[in-house]
Amino acid sequence: xxxxxxxxxxxxxxxxxxxxxxxxxxxxxxxxxxxxxxxxxxxxxxxxxxxxxxxxxxxxxxxxxxxxxxxxxxxxxxxxxxxxxxxxxxxxxxxxxxxxxxxxxxxxxxxxxxxxxxxxxxxxxxxxxxxxxxxxxxxxxxxxxxxxxxxxxxx
Length: 155
Prior knowledge:
Blueprint: E1 18-21, H1 22-26, E2 32-38, E3 48-51, E4 55-62, E5 64-69, E6 74-77, E7 81-84, E8 90-93, E9 100-107, E10 114-120, E11 125-133, E12 140-144, E13 150-154
Antiparallel strand pairs: 1-2, 2-9, 3-10, 4-7, 4-9, 5-6, 5-8, 10-11, 11-12, 12-13
């Protein structure tokens, strides 16, 4: 058995104010788990994405998330749970002034290939992207696979 306090964990760099990686903290073997605190405009993901092998479940503890999906926006309020199957594209964003608290689970832990789409001004539209650590290790950056330009920087 393992027990952790969220207040004792260190947030990692990413698209939300707080991202607590619970997978390693709890020693999880079969499921990935993250806790998020999102201010207005922040997201749980670097882009509109799909995991090849992983289903994802989001529990909204407080606030409201808006999920971009292939079928249009889906709004999830406090107390609601949303599930995406392997291969389903989604991106959750907090579009409200109130901070959103979210618990995300993914299984299996190995998501397989992740396809991520973001807007690239240089390419003139939405393109595939990958995420990498900045050279000075002070940020995580989103990089367009087509032109190599940075389209997002997260500290």
